[in-house]
Write a structure and sequence with these properties.
Length: 221
């Protein structure tokens, strides 16, 4: 009797495991991976960042910038495609599809919205506009500030008034030391009898390089 009971239990366990294995295999065969691309219906351009969601289920993916997407679902599910500026679209995954992979090209149609006419006025009355035009202070934008900071007269004034910074002072000192090292142990040459130096002096005199420069904004106009 005990042997018969043990054999019956083993038979029932074997049948249950076989049924569960068959159910699992059937469930795995029902799973399918959908790979595809979303494009416009009129010009066949890729639609970026489209939301692909399984209908009535809290699962979905987002397409890439080039419209490519990949999602895993069950055969018989319905995929919903939605994107701002396009009409929503649904795709039904047929139950009779063979295999676990399927490719699709989904086309979306642009959606047109017609809004009511809206008139935007800066001020309610003409008198208010005149007052604002005369008395309002509008701060400079970044373009105007950049234009003022790079103005040629402003840069010339700053170059004439600002002292040298540490880097410029160090460069000038090193250049002076290099010039002194060239004539170390001997007298420096004097250009008082150099005809080329005199010619350069007369040219600078004619150009007005030795005139008094009092206003850096006017010089060089």
């Amino acid at each position: 009797m005990r042997l018969n009971a043990i054999l019956q239990c083993l038979f029932f366990l074997f049948c249950a495991s076989g049924i569960s294995t068959a159910v699992a295999q059937a469930s795995n065969e029902n799973i399918i991976q959908i790979n595809g691309v979303v494009m416009t219906a009129d010009s066949l351009r890729a639609v970026p960042y489209v939301t692909v969601q399984v209908k009535s289920k809290n699962r979905g993916v987002e397409a890439e910038y080039n419209g490519v997407f990949s999602i895993v679902c069950y055969k018989g599910d319905t995929l919903q495609f939605s994107s701002l500026g396009y009409r929503p679209k649904e795709f039904v995954v047929r139950k009779d599809l063979k295999g676990q992979f399927f490719s699709v090209i989904q086309l979306l149609v642009q959606d047109t919205f017609y809004l009511a006419e809206t008139i935007i006025r800066p001020l309610p009355t003409k008198e208010g506009f005149d007052y604002a035009f005369l008395h309002w202070h509008i701060p400079n934008d970044q373009y105007e500030m950049a234009r003022k900071n790079t103005d040629v007269y402003m840069l010339r004034a700053l170059a004439a008034t600002l002292p040298k910074d540490g880097r410029e002072s160090q460069t000038a000192l090193l250049q002076q030391q290099a010039r002194d090292a060239v004539y170390y142990g001997q007298n420096k040459p004097m250009n008082i009898l150099n005809p080329l130096a005199w010619a350069e002096f007369f040219d600078a005199w004619k150009r007005g390089d030795f005139r008094k420069k009092s206003n850096p904004y006017v010089d060089g106009q």
